Task: inverse folding
């Protein structure tokens, strides 16, 4: 689990934070900058390893990200490699 004590996120925005190029604060003078790709990449890497990521957040109190990865990597690694190889062939 990764926790922070930052500004938190509104509950209605939590479903969108793993989508590419999504930024919760869209004003031109926003305090926090970024491209909106970080959590998308994290989610994809975790899923490539057969895992899952979830988030809970409370405005003004911070956020908690829960990452679950399988213990038995051998069952996961080969199917992931096969999937990646087939995607590379299609490209």
Result:
């Amino acid at each position: 689990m990764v926790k922070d004590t930052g500004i938190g996120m509104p509950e209605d925005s939590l479903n969108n934070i793993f989508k590419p190029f999504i930024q919760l604060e869209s004003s031109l003078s926003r305090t926090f900058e970024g491209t909106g790709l970080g959590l998308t990449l994290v989610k994809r890497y975790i899923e490539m390893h057969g895992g899952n990521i979830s988030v809970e957040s409370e405005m003004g109190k911070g956020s908690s990200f829960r990452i679950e990865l399988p213990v038995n990597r051998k069952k996961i690694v080969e199917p992931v490699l096969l999937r990646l190889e087939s995607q590379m062939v299609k490209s």
Summary: The beta strands are 2-3, 52-58, 62-68. Residues 74-90 form the longest helix (17 residues).
